[in-house]
Amino acid sequence: MKLEELIDQIEKIDSYKRFGSVKRVVGLMIESQGPESSVGDVCCIHIGKGRTRKIQAEVVGFKNESVILMPYTDVQDISPGCLVEASSKPLEVKIGTALIGQVIDSLGQPLDGSQLPKGLTPVLTEQSPPNPLKRPPISEPIEVGVRMIDSMLTVGNGQRVGIFAGSGVGKSTLLGMIARNTNADLNVIALIGERGREVREFIERDLGPEGLNRSIVVVATSDQPALMRIKGAYTATAIAEYFRDKGLNVMLMMDSVTRVAMAQREIGLAVGEPPTTKGYTPSVFAVLPKLLERTGTNEHGSITAFYTVLVDGDDMNEPIADTVRGILDGHFVLDRALANKGQYPAINVLKSVSRVMNHIADSDHIKSAEKVREMLSTYINAEDLINIGAYKRGSSIEIDEAIRLYPSIISFLKQETHEKISILESVGQLKGIAGKGE
Ligand SMILES: Nc1ncnc2c1ncn2[C@@H]1O[C@H](COP(=O)(O)OP(=O)(O)OP(=O)(O)O)[C@@H](O)[C@H]1O
Ligand SMILES: [Mg+2]
């Protein structure tokens, strides 16, 4: 760089530090007089005796003459007059290949309290989605290594899918399987709003060392402040974006996006937004599309994303489920009835859709999947009659065929947690079953 340019830059540097002071604390919100800042900026609040400790907080709004801040951590020892120091920039986290295999928190710090590795690049956690015109269409499948998905609900490289499920039907197990088996270059896994106990269980049991070695895990447990839970989602997405810009095919998994929406609702209500459907505030419905649109393809690489959505009972019309389903390119429904029967992964194929499958699979594959779907649905429709013995063989050719093939279809759909299978094999087996019906 030339000397003049350097001098020019020095002249432009803002050498002032801006301070404000805490006026009052109401619940989760801190009101301060100053500093000059904009929404989304991070500030440091000097707290404790002698004001020796600092906590980070974010500007979430303004009221009359004061700045409203929300802390990233629990607040203790805060008192009127505490100094609020503006950083004049939004939250950044440090990202790089050295993070692979690490478990970090929403602010990008290792969860075990160790030091961050060297050589990382600071990146803003909030980014805009890629320009729609620069997004290449999804044109090829990505292998997830789960037979039922690869064959019947083929996922495209850069597709975004919602996994809709109640509690305890196998979401974490399924995500762990995908993380271990996929041929994506890297996994970024965001665990948002989980209980603390589940985090270790997921990392050790579902992900295992082989899964963790090709993953970066971002954790914000349910006991953390709402802002941290939201930031967990942003940080994980920013990490996935960083590697996508390096040309990689990234797999992002977020468990769960419902808890992100709940955290946004908490913040919305605290800053005085009106509650609308099910108490969700308008900002929830503004934030979700912005977050979910960030993944997918761009001109460099791709982020294939799985977002889990919690549904109580079978209520797919709950506002978050409904909004998320509208934004994404597919939805997989995990069914408690299947889990109760021991049919794992408990994906209900007949209720699930991959919207890009028809563009990325060959016609033989599509026909076979349709055939198996049809047969399964014929069997399910007649299942009650068959079970009570009211169906007489020979009454319908379709039902006879469905009864004959049902056992092979079910054993095809089932998969042990540690069974690994390639997409080629899965599609081959699917074609085999469909062929038997001809
Ligand atoms: N593929 C599978 N094979 C065998 N058992 C399975 C499989 N998937 C899930 N299970 C069983 O279901 C149980 C619950 O699974 P999991 O913890 O993955 O559910 P979850 O939806 O993540 O639950 P939560 O809502 O509590 O987070 C597991 O303990 C396991 O016994
Ligand atoms: Mg779970």
From TrEMBL:
Entry keyword Magnesium: no
Output the SMART domains linked to this UniProt entry.
AAA
> Pfam families under this entry?
ATP-synt_ab, ATP-synt_ab_N, T3SS_ATPase_C
Q: Where does the protein end up?
A: Cytoplasm
Q: Does the keyword Cytoplasm apply?
A: yes
UniProt GO molecular function: ATP binding; ATP hydrolysis activity; protein-exporting ATPase activity; proton-transporting ATP synthase activity, rotational mechanism
Keyword annotations of the record:
ATP synthesis, ATP-binding, Cytoplasm, Ion transport, Nucleotide-binding, Protein transport, Translocase, Transport
Which terms in the GO cellular component ontology are assigned?
cytoplasm; type III protein secretion system complex
Q: Which GO terms describe its biological process?
A: bacterial-type flagellum assembly; bacterial-type flagellum-dependent cell motility; protein secretion by the type III secretion system
Q: Where in the numbering of this chain does the AAA+ ATPase domain appear?
A: 157-338
Q: Which domain of life is it from?
A: Bacteria
Per the record, what are the reactions this protein catalyses? ATP + H2O + cellular proteinSide 1 = ADP + phosphate + cellular proteinSide 2
InterPro entries this protein is in?
A: AAA+_ATPase, ATPase_a/bsu_AS, ATPase_alpha/beta_chains, ATPase_F1/V1/A1_a/bsu_N, ATPase_F1/V1/A1_a/bsu_nucl-bd, ATPase_T3SS_FliI/YscN, FliI_clade2, P-loop_NTPase
**PANTHER family in alphabetical order:** ATP SYNTHASE, SPI-1 TYPE 3 SECRETION SYSTEM ATPASE
What is the protein's name according to its record? Flagellum-specific ATP synthase
**Which species is this record about?**
Cytobacillus oceanisediminis
